[in-house]
């Protein structure tokens, strides 16, 4: 099966519910780690080679509102379900460097969740306004991404460029493991059994159940780039070849 990859777009321009990438410097993309470094912000160039890499770099616009003429965005990461939320207390103060420390940026529980497109020292990026301070993301090769703060945009120093990138029609092959684990979207009372569901936009069935979207499926590799899709609670005779 095929999934959609992504191509370059513009600075953040999206609405609630949109799925985007956040492009950084040198054609890299803002990602969130899974596994042992769960929640740590990172970047990657090759995000369209497989679904696992793509999910780490995929962000959903979970909220958008306008305040004082500016659009405020909130983002949720696809791979981890973590919000792009940062803790102001961990920010490196560029106005008090002697008493500040650079801390690798890890998501999970921060109070600053709303981001605004701004230009900081000729760099297009997103920042978060928090009380008297402005928060932004910077990069140090020694520790990776970390949070910085200052009272004005021009005092933020060198920050990471961030811009939205929109979906393209480039296909990506999906195997059974991709479908069962990375697209898993159906709850089951047997955690060892992995099922996913299809969706249609727009919905083509009106007034009655849509068999394709109402059926939980399990994928099995069939070889030569194909998978079997087996309906939940059906034996192998009920499988479909896709």
Low-confidence stretches: 1-10, 237-242
Number of helices: 3
| End-to-end Cα distance | 7 Å
The computed structural class is mainly beta
Classify the oligomer: single chain
Radius of gyration over all CA atoms, rounded: 21 Å
Q: What is the H-and-E element order? A: EEEEHEEEEEEEEEHHEEE
Instruction: Give the number of DSSP strands.
Output: 16
Roughly what percent helix?
Answer: under 10%
Report the portion of residues in β strands: 35-45%
Major sheet size, sense and barrel closure: 5 strands, mixed
Q: How do the strands of the widest beta sheet line up side by side?
A: 7-11-10-9-8
Broad shape: elongated
Mean pLDDT: 82
Structural account:
With 242 residues, the protein is mainly beta. Helices cover 7% and strands 38% of the residues. It contains three helices and 16 strands. The strands form five sheets. It has a five-stranded mixed β-sheet, with no helix packed on it. It has a four-stranded antiparallel β-sheet with strand order 6-5-2-12. The protein has a three-stranded antiparallel β-sheet with strand order 14-15-16. A hairpin with a 3-residue loop joins strand 10 and strand 11 (144-150). The model is unreliable at 1-10 and 237-242 (pLDDT under 50).
